Amino acid sequence: MNKFPHDFFWGASTSAHQVEGGNLHNDWWLAEQGGSLREASGQACRHYDLFKEDFAIAKELGHNCHRFSIEWSRIEPQEGEFQPFEIEHYHKVIAELRRLGIEPVVTLHHFTNPVWFSRKGGWVDSGLQRYFLSFVEKIVSEFCGEVKFWITINEPLVYSSHSYLLGVWPPQERSLSKTARVTLNMARAHIKAYRIIHDIYRRRGLARPMVSIAANLQAFEPCRPTLKNKLAVYLRDKLYNFYFIEELLRRKSLDYIGLNYYSRNLADVESWGIRHLLLDTCKYNHHPLRKNSLGWDIYPQGIYKLLIALKRYGLPVLITENGICTEDDALRWDYIREHLQMVHRSMQEGVNVLGYIYWSLIDNFEWDKGFGPRFGLVDIDYRDQKRTIRPSAKKLSEVFKTGLI
Known about the structure:
Layout: E1 9-13, H1 16-19, H2 27-34, H3 47-60, E2 65-69, H4 72-75, H5 84-99, E3 103-107, H6 115-120, H7 129-143, E4 149-154, H8 156-164, H9 176-204, E5 210-222, H10 227-250, E6 257-267, H11 274-279, H12 301-310, E7 317-321, H13 329-348, E8 353-359, E9 378-381, E10 386-389, H14 391-402
Parallel strand pairs: 1-2, 1-8, 2-3, 3-4, 4-5, 5-6, 6-7, 7-8
Antiparallel strand pairs: 9-10
């Protein structure tokens, strides 16, 4: 058996639009009503109303931290009009977590934007960062006495690529130049937000906060040891996994590294074009692995390799997402157990891992995939919103309570 430290953070994640329901004022809701997406989020999991029930389950399962997002479009549904009622709602959310002894990890941007922000040009226009920074200043000023861990932006490269390169997320565009601009603007916004957050804590005489992004990293592997495939892996590692992190480190704007990890990416490049080098994957299942319900490879070694790679940056790592969508709950437990074993192995080799936050606490609205994928430790019956704790959650609970895997 492997033993985790007694002060390790154990928990699960959610994001506002995926669980709250009724987020009427953001760009996702607008696109859902327009019919360009598979399903509409609607009432989602009604977590906005049922958060106390969900947090009670988390407490029962031994969670001592919880990651969630504050929905910008609830706080500021119209430009410059901040809603005291909605701010008070999130005060209640954080107070409930604190009452239960669960550390809040707060995300400020998790893929959704207010409609008014999007209509002005959103993240494409560098001048519009000021609106996000105004939101950051408002929220952090409100909650700085209650929150230590902040994530400014969730998966910025996933947002830019899915929204502006692949065109599957709002605003569903396909432009390499816009993808690059959005990525750059998000990096700049994080750097400025980092300084704003730290300045607020200094002015209030509060203990130093912990601020990061949540970076989605993949385990890039060559399908065959060809020069094209090796170059593809090098470029993907450099551009997708580490460039953004290194840019933020260069600007001294990370206190820890938030790591989201799910799967392997098996590079099998057809030709030398840059799009092929960055995007081509094996189509022939040359190296078959177990898969989740979306067809993603289950590759626990990947989280170990990435944690070892992140060690060189000298910062602690918080695993902010790791999970599996599957109807096979035994497979869910195998996935969790095997990944935790790899996390412990990396810690034995000197990686400073602060905690493990599973994605997700409850089943939810999985963006363009709709309600089909089941990631939750807790099953949601969308007909009546009944919560049912899965057996895998109970097994994980024993790990959380004992630290043994």
